[in-house]
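Record type: monomer structure entry
Structure origin: computed from sequence
Chain ID: A
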Amino acid sequence: MILEKVTANKKLIAEDLILIWEDAVRKTHSFLKEENIAKLRPLVKLAIKNMQTLLIAKEKSGNIMGFIAIENKKIEMLFVKPEFFKIGVGKALLLFAVKNYDAIWVDVNEQNVKALEFYKHMGFTVFSYSKANNTTNSFRIVHMKWKEEI
């Protein structure tokens, strides 16, 4: 697995990443309906294009396995293609982001129990909760902070 920062035009890779996002969300976010995903898609695509730091994990062949997006030390997105679940892709991206980009914050939907367990297992701790206040969902958000020394 190769981890690298996207330095070229993010617009070129955005379509590939949005497909990864969609596949992963359909597998992991059972609380979202198709209309939620449809409403979120253009917002996520725009966010990917404008993200401060975008890192990808890829195979030697160039096939993208997953990605993580960071803005002001906060993990805004971490998604892995479902066929690469449970082989360390998410863990590698997360640790790379923490160690190299000081990513110490993350927000998670409370209903996304597997993500909450993953972040806790990786060294994040819950420090507060809030209700999302946007038009696409009204799910409670769990705010987490990195608690480990690198």
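Annotation 1: The mean pLDDT is 88.
Annotation 2: Residues 10-28 form the longest helix (19 residues).
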